[in-house]
Amino acid sequence: MRRAYWTLDWYDAHIVAQMLHHEGIDAWVFNDNIVRTDWMQAIAYGGYRVMIDDGELADAQKHIDDYLHGKRRLAAADDDLDLCPNCGGHAVRDNAVPRRLLFIWFFLSFLSVPVFVAIAVAHYASSLSHIDIVGTVALSTAVFFLLTAVLPPLYSAFRLKWQYRCDNCAHRWQSPPQERWSILRDRASGA
Ligand SMILES: [Zn+2]
């Protein structure tokens, strides 16, 4: 068996495996349930590996190259993505920037605790004054909660407001709220 494809994305691995199946190539995603138990350690677990029989590597590589270079993408007119409300174009994608900024904010708020402790220890080391452990922990905890408390309003302000992005005109917008579930259900049962 040979590894035909490697990724850190569970869906990506299964999309590639199903694509190869569709092309008549037997393909398996190895150990995906072990790797996905802890995504922070996905690299340590070896990532998601799509494995195939030795003799089919060249054929599989051709299909994977097509997939990676967007040659298997649906024609813009055939996909069911919303059109850009500004220019009417098809180049609409999920806007990852606000999500990344929020993750950095969340990460930095966790860092506030060790940073405050380090400042207190450095102060103690330089002046040999009494170290105020209770004050340091209380202050760092307060800062941590303050930073995390603004996450929900930041989420609605950035993530929801700029949910989609147009590659043509750089317009960002929020998708309209979905209709109520009961209405969708009635429409589906009536179809
Ligand atoms: Zn646009």
Residue-averaged pLDDT, rounded? 87
Largest sheet, in brief, is: 3 strands, antiparallel
- Written as H for each helix and E for each strand, in order along the chain, the element string is EHEHEHEHHHEEH
What level of helicity do the residues show? Answer: 40-55%
Number of distinct beta strands: 6
Classify the secondary structure makeup into a structural class: alpha+beta
Distinct small molecules bound, one entry per kind: zinc ion
Shape: extended
Instruction: Quote the CATH topology of the largest domain.
Output: Alpha-Beta Plaits
What's the CATH class label of the largest domain?
Answer: Alpha Beta
Strand residue content: 5-15%
CATH architecture of the largest domain: 2-Layer Sandwich
Q: Enumerate the strands of the largest sheet in spatial order, edge to edge or round the barrel.
A: 1-3-2
| Terminal Cα span | 46 Å
What Rg do the Cα atoms give?
Answer: 25 Å
In total, how many domains does the architecture comprise?
A: 2
Helical segment count: 7
Q: Low-confidence segments, ≥5 residues, pLDDT <50?
A: none
